[in-house]
Design brief:
The complex is a heterodimer of chains A (424) and B (147).
Chain A: H1 5-11, H2 17-31, E1 38-40, E2 46-48, H3 58-69, E3 78-80, H4 93-103, H5 107-117, H6 149-157, H7 170-177, E4 179-181, E5 193-199, H8 207-218, E6 223-226, H9 229-232, H10 238-254, E7 261-262, H11 267-272, E8 277-286, H12 288-296, E9 311-319, H13 321-337, E10 347-351, H14 353-360, H15 363-370, E11 374-376, H16 380-384, H17 387-390, E12 394-396, H18 399-404, E13 408-409, H19 412-419
Parallel strand pairs in A: 2-3, 5-6, 5-8, 6-7, 9-10, 9-12, 10-11, 12-13
Antiparallel strand pairs in A: 1-4
Chain B: E1 2-5, E2 7-10, E3 14-20, E4 25-26, H1 27-36, E5 61-64, E6 67-68, H2 73-82, E7 89-92, H3 98-110, E8 118-120, H4 124-129, E9 135-138, E10 143-146
Parallel strand pairs in B: 3-5, 4-6, 5-7, 7-8
Antiparallel strand pairs in B: 1-10, 2-8, 3-9, 9-10
Helix pairs in contact in B: 1-2, 2-3
The chains are: A alpha/beta (424), B alpha/beta (147).
């Protein structure tokens, strides 16, 4: 890697040992990908994936403290993934004991570190940092040092920004030195598709199911998707963006996708079309039968596969304002059809604090509350990390949550049917 | 005994028993529970990986195509090394992915006294040949011997 004089001076220790180690980390990271140089970060804000004060992550907080003690935290502010805890989310005495006394014991300490490191806002805790209500929305072409797989894939694909699938800690290190290694998804060549996906379904494919199928097939490659604009349109409106948010999260968690192109829709595909497809690209055809096969092959890890669900999570990644409104209307309609006034399973919808605040100002908030649905800002994954929660039969419409936890995946329609008492 | 030549990502030499997956290794799903709740054997917790689920990863030569999943993967790997609950080495058939690279580099730069050699680009033949329990030796120059 060729470094500038300034970068070399940092690496040589002229600005202190801690900064030298930060630079060494980024250079070694870049070397693994034959990066020839470091390029400046251009986004206004960063986004960090580590939002939880988990007792087991002490090495991370020790490292953050070294950075703070050395006085090398950067001036670039950041948003961060969701908080792990909210007293409004149902949990029994023992579950809460584990949350508060054994798991997230460093939460306050770590949030204090985050504020000192440059948290942009005390409520900037969401995986959907790019929502207008959160305010961390990079421009097309911006170079980022983000982590959080669902945010990175959204920023690259829907916003046309440029970011590699950075890990936690690397995210803030790029910000500290102001540069990231130039490789992979930062390069034009790295953004070319090596897979062509043909969507041949007869109905609109479920976002997280389609994303799961594609993610598992292409792993970390870049897919170019044909036939999806037929179902979600050629305009990046709220509805399409919400679909792609969920789709992308599934590709990134079920596989390792950092960028996808949707023909006729996402910015680079709209601009360059099939010129984005690399020579020799492989093909994957997805029809309804294939989606059914993928769904039927998910492992069921409940001890009793026939157990009645005890909890439902919707919103991984966090829901948009439009999604909250749509779910409200749908739940009301289904409850009425099933002769019920409230959801029959404790149900939690998660969204960014800013989105929940905006939702709270609409008429829908009271209506959703009346259905018995609980809204929260947490990360459902962090809730499910509690071994006492892991043992519970939990259902979700998130394929990302399914991947990492014991939660069982169902489509939005199936979840709606179940929580409104349609199974009786 | 068969030799394979790869590219050194983080240096070191070690001999360990192999544990093998031909699927993407989901670092967060595999390690989070074991690290969080003090599993002494560091058993793989990823229920989607039938080859590894329930097997001990501690001190083993983890042989894999690449890692997948959450971008916390790198810091999870870093924490595993800092807690000395890491595999003895990680041996990638493919080019290393960004999350595993981050974790390996973070451990190499920031964790004193713990070495986890990482070698990539060993090829599909490596992953097809090596089986659970085989003795694997990693040399400093990226040569991996499998017995």
């Amino acid at each position: 890697m060729i470094l500038t004089k300034e970068q070399q001076a940092i690496l040589n220790g002229e600005k202190g040992e801690t900064l030298a180690k930060v630079m060494k980390t980024l250079v070694m990271y870049g070397d693994a990908f034959e990066a020839e140089k470091l390029v400046p970060i251009t986004s206004k804000y960063n986004h960090l994936v580590t939002s939880f004060g988990l007792k087991v992550m002490l090495p991370v907080y020790d490292l953050m403290q070294k950075i703070l003690d050395a006085g090398v935290a950067s001036g670039q502010k950041f948003s961060v993934d969701p908080r792990p805890l909210d007293k409004n989310v149902p949990a029994n005495f023992l579950q809460n004991l584990v949350f508060n006394k054994f798991m997230y014991t460093k939460q306050d300490f770590y949030e204090d570190q985050l504020e000192k490191l440059g948290l942009m806002d005390k409520n900037a805790f969401s995986c959907t940092c790019y929502m207008d209500e959160v305010g961390n929305k990079p421009q097309k072409g911006d170079v980022l040092s983000w982590a959080e797989s669902s945010a990175v894939v959204y920023a690259n694909s829907v916003l046309g920004a440029r970011c590699n699938r950075n890990s936690g800690i690397i995210d803030i290190m790029g910000s500290i030195v102001g540069f990231v290694p130039y490789f992979g998804l930062l390069t034009d060549e790295g953004r070319k598709a090596t897979w062509v996906i043909k969507v041949n379904t007869k109905t609109k494919p479920e976002a997280q199911l389609l994303g799961s199928a594609i993610g598992m097939k292409v792993m970390e490659d870049v897919p170019y998707v044909l036939g999806l604009d037929k179902w979600i349109g050629n305009e990046l409106n709220d509805s399409a963006c919400a679909y792609l948010k969920d789709f992308g999260a599934a590709t990134a968690s079920n596989g390792a996708v950092g960028l996808y192109h949707i023909d006729g829709l996402t910015p680079e595909a709209a601009e360059l079309g099939e010129a984005l497809i690399a020579e020799g690209a492989k093909e994957y055809i997805i029809d309804d039968a294939e989606l059914e096969r993928v769904k039927n092959n998910y492992p069921v890890v409940w001890k009793n596969p026939d157990a009645s669900p005890k909890l439902c999570f919707v919103g991984c990644p966090h829901l948009s304002l439009e999604q909250l409104k749509n779910w409200t209307v749908n739940i009301e309609t289904e409850l009425k059809a099933n002769g019920n006034k409230k959801v029959t399973i404790p149900t939690v919808f998660t969204a960014a604090p800013g989105v929940l605040e905006a939702f709270g100002k609409t008429e829908y908030a009271e209506r959703l509350k009346n259905t018995g649905v609980i809204t929260s800002y947490i990360c459902p994954l962090m809730y499910m990390n509690n071994p006492l929660c892991k043992k519970m039969p939990v259902i979700t419409s998130s394929n990302k949550l399914r991947t990492y936890t014991s939660a069982r995946y169902y489509t939005d329609a199936e979840i709606l049917h179940t929580i409104t008492g349609g199974n009786k | 005994m068969k030799q394979f030549k790869g590219r050194v990502i983080t240096p070191g030499e070690v001999t360990a028993d192999a544990v093998v997956t031909t699927e993407g290794f989901n670092t967060l799903a595999s390690l989070q529970m074991a690290l969080q709740f003090g599993d002494k054997e560091v058993k793989c917790g990823d229920q989607n990986n039938k080859e590894l689920h329930g097997k001990s990863l501690l001190g083993k030569a983890l042989c894999l195509p690449q890692t997948i999943g959450s971008t916390t993967g790198g810091l999870v790997l870093y924490c595993a090394c800092a807690m000395e609950k890491n595999p003895a080495c990680m041996l990638f058939a493919n080019h290393i992915d960004s999350l595993a690279a981050a974790g390996a580099v973070l451990a190499d730069v920031w964790v004193d006294g713990v070495s986890m050699p990482v070698v990539d680009s060993l090829g599909d033949e490596f992953l097809n040949y090596v089986k659970d329990g085989m003795k694997v030796t990693v040399k400093a120059n990226g040569i991996v011997e499998v017995e």
